[in-house]
Write a structure and sequence with these properties.
Order of helices and strands of chain A: HHHHHHHH
Number of strands of chain B: 0
Low-confidence stretches of chain B: none
Number of helices of chain B: 7
Structural class of chain A: mainly alpha
Mean pLDDT of chain B: 93
Radius of gyration of chain B: 18 Å
Strand content of chain B: under 5%
Number of domains of chain B: 1
Oligomer: heterodimer
Low-confidence stretches of chain A: none
Number of strands of chain A: 0
Distance between the termini of chain B: 18 Å
Largest sheet of chain B: none
Chain lengths: 168, 157
């Protein structure tokens, strides 16, 4: 079913256009994908560490002020990721490891949503120097681990589960 | 030179890294190389962008801890990088793009150490000298070149 969709997507104009693009488009997008991941994980990782209770002398609101850069990294990776998927859909939809990556992304996204809607305001108002509450630590650990999961699954794409949909 | 690279690649360790039938060999080492990349370039970018004027509510002095994260990341990437190099020494060692990558990293390290001295070398980090901004631009540029040339090693003959 999903491979039928992949096959259809592979034949759409946009996919064909991307496949016939200059040969450096793919490596270029890969490079941006790596730069984006450094920005996203570097910034979000520091925020997570702060929520876990490290670097207590820095106000949480201040570290949070850097999150737009993590969002920019995420946007860059979403965009370049879409280029990969639209160019070679079967390579991703047919690979269970890619679905694992998506699952980790969903966990990371939902976790961020929970943080924003429930504890975000209170966290930003926490005074410096005090330990963070357990709920914040849990959210930070879930975030840290799920982003690591995204990276792990992404890097394992060529090694685990690849080939199931290859050749489509 | 080529003979030496070939001997590295065909050493027990080189063969284990490149072809042991376990995810713990090449795939995990490559994955850790990506983790290290994020630990080096992410915090470096935060410090550089801050020095260039973004996020001014964040005191620069609060960022003195980024170097510790960067050093851990760098240690991970130096060791995983050496392992990856040994496993493909003959394929990668003679590629010009590999030397571009190593040069970019070497220069980025020099820039980082100068930046650290300029900003955290004793004076008030929040009154960093103007040359810190120039160094921040070089840092961003050189790490991007390092990432790009690293990625291109899979493509350039």
């Amino acid at each position: 079913m999903i491979l039928v969709f992949a096959s259809w997507l592979h034949k759409t104009q946009i996919s064909v256009a991307l496949q016939q693009q200059v040969s450096w488009l793919w490596p270029f997008c890969e490079t941006l994908h790596f730069a984006g991941l450094a920005l996203l994980l570097g910034v979000a990782g520091m925020f997570d560490l702060r929520l876990m209770g490290f670097m207590r002398s820095v106000p949480i609101s201040v570290v949070k002020g850097f999150m737009p850069w993590a969002m920019a990294g995420f946007a860059l990776n979403l965009l370049t990721g879409i280029v990969f998927i639209v160019s070679e859909p079967a390579q991703y939809f047919g690979n269970p490891t890619w679905w694992l990556k998506v699952a980790f992304l969903v966990v990371a996204g939902l976790n961020a949503l929970v943080f924003e809607t429930t504890l975000g305001q209170r966290a930003a108002a926490l005074p410096v120097g005090v330990d963070t509450p357990v709920a914040l630590k849990v959210i930070a650990v879930v975030s840290f681990l799920s982003w690591f999961g995204v990276l792990w699954a992404g890097r394992m794409l060529p090694f685990v589960g690849a080939g199931v949909g290859a050749g489509l | 030179m080529e003979e030496f690279l070939l001997r590295l690649q065909e050493s027990d360790f080189g063969v284990w890294v490149s072809s042991a039938p376990t995810l713990l060999a090449y795939p995990t080492i490559l994955m850790l190389h990506t983790v290290g990349l994020a630990m080096v370039v992410g915090p470096a970018a935060v410090l550089d962008l801050r020095l260039l004027g973004y996020g001014e509510r964040l005191p620069v002095s609060a960022l003195s801890g980024v170097f510790r994260v960067m050093w851990i990341g760098f240690a991970i990437n130096a060791s995983t990088g050496i392992a990856l190099f040994i496993s493909e020494a003959d394929d990668k060692g003679l590629k010009w793009i590999f030397w571009v990558k190593l040069s970019a990293i070497a220069l980025a390290l020099i820039v980082t150490s100068r930046l650290r001295k300029a900003v955290f070398g004793g004076g008030d980090p929040d009154a960093a000298p103007p040359r810190a901004q120039g160094l921040a631009v070089w840092s961003l540029l050189l790490w991007f070149v390092a990432i790009t040339s690293g990625r291109l090693m899979a493509y350039v003959k």
